[in-house]
């Protein structure tokens, strides 16, 4: 079944079903023999992100157990992310080559070779699958005991409205400060609402394909901003990865330009995504 609310099902029942399904699918993906190890882990982490978005919507139902449920899924994802950062920085360095001159390419080739070797070593390490599975089992058990007699439409509508308002504030802070952590915060909120709109497609008036595509584009752009930041931080902590200090400084300057261009693109996309004020957006939400 698609990861969205069933039009013939109560929203409350649909939300709890989707949560338990997302956690169960995350667990099952780890044992999918049709996928290689990296694909299994990638699919599992994507399902965990879906579940974490739904947990935020259903927070009132978890009560005191909310933080424990968040911790289980967060820790499971972290156990499976040993290769993710290594892959991201290697891929980010490779994207810099397209717009680089001959001298810059020589410097980048050294860095890319080093980062690829680093990623290969990360992939060679054993992933703690059993520990992640245990956490996912605990999370699914906790989710299966959630109450079913709650006003799901209200919770979902309020979650979408609140997230939109938080996105607007995060975008303003990012535009004003241009600080990496502000763009990271903005990205998390945008991806959260993207998950909620996908879940609500066909039930929520604002969950139209164009709106979902726009926020997806924004989230991907913000993700690239964060990837540039990740590589910059790695080089600052490990300047020898680029070969020499001069090479490191030069590549950091290239990354600064790349990140600034991506930030500008994200802010341009934001003008379309956040046309309505938070108050107007919240009042306009209609859920079937």
Estimated radius of gyration:
21 Å
Structure annotation, total helices: 12
Oligomer: single chain
Strand content: under 5%
Shape: globular
Give the N-to-C terminal Cα separation: 19 Å
Q: Report the structural category.
A: mainly alpha
Largest sheet descriptor: none
Average per-residue pLDDT, rounded, comes to: 93
Order of helices and strands: HHHHHHHHHHHH
Give the total of beta strands: 0
List low-confidence stretches. Answer: none
Summarize the amount of helix as a percent range: over 70%
Compute the number of structural domains. Answer: 2
Describe this protein's structure.
The protein has 288 residues and is an all-alpha fold. 77% of the residues lie in helices and 0% in strands. The protein has twelve helices and no strands. The longest helix has 29 residues, at 209-237. The chain is globular. The mean pLDDT is 93.
What descriptive keywords fit this protein?
12 helices; Four Helix Bundle (Hemerythrin (Met), subunit A); 0% strand; 2 domains
Please provide a brief summary of the model:
The chain has twelve helices and no strands.
Topology overview:
Layout: H1 11-29, H2 37-57, H3 59-62, H4 66-79, H5 84-95, H6 102-124, H7 129-144, H8 152-177, H9 180-200, H10 209-237, H11 245-273, H12 278-284
Helix pairs in contact: 1-2, 1-7, 2-4, 2-9, 4-7, 5-6, 5-10, 8-9, 8-12, 9-10, 10-11
């Amino acid at each position: 079944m698609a990861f969205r609310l069933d039009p013939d099902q109560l929203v409350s029942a649909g939300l709890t079903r989707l949560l338990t399904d997302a956690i169960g699918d995350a667990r099952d993906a780890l044992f999918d023999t049709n996928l290689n190890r990296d694909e299994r882990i990638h699919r599992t982490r994507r399902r965990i992100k879906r579940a974490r978005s739904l947990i935020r919507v259903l927070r009132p139902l978890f009560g005191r157990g909310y933080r424990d449920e968040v911790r289980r899924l967060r820790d499971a994802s972290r156990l499976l992310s040993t290769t993710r950062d290594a892959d991201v920085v290697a891929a980010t360095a490779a994207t810099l080559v397209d717009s680089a001159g001959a001298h810059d390419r020589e410097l980048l080739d050294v860095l890319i070779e080093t980062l690829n070797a680093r990623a290969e070593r990360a992939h060679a390490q054993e992933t703690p699958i059993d520990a992640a599975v245990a956490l996912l089992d605990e999370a699914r058990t906790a989710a299966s005991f959630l109450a079913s007699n709650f006003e799901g439409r209200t919770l979902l509508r309020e979650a979408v409205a609140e997230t939109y308002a938080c996105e607007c504030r995060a975008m303003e802070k990012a535009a004003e400060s241009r600080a990496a952590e502000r763009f990271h915060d903005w990205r998390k909120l945008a991806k959260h609402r993207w998950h909620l709109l996908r879940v609500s497609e066909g039930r929520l008036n604002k969950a139209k394909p164009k709106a979902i595509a726009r926020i997806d584009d924004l989230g991907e752009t913000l993700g690239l901003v964060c990837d540039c930041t990740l590589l910059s931080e790695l080089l600052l902590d490990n300047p020898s990865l680029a070969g020499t200090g001069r090479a490191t400084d030069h590549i950091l300057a290239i990354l600064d330009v790349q990140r600034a261009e991506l930030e500008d693109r994200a802010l341009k996309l934001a003008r379309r995504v956040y046309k309505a004020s938070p108050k107007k957006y919240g009042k306009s939400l209609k859920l079937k």
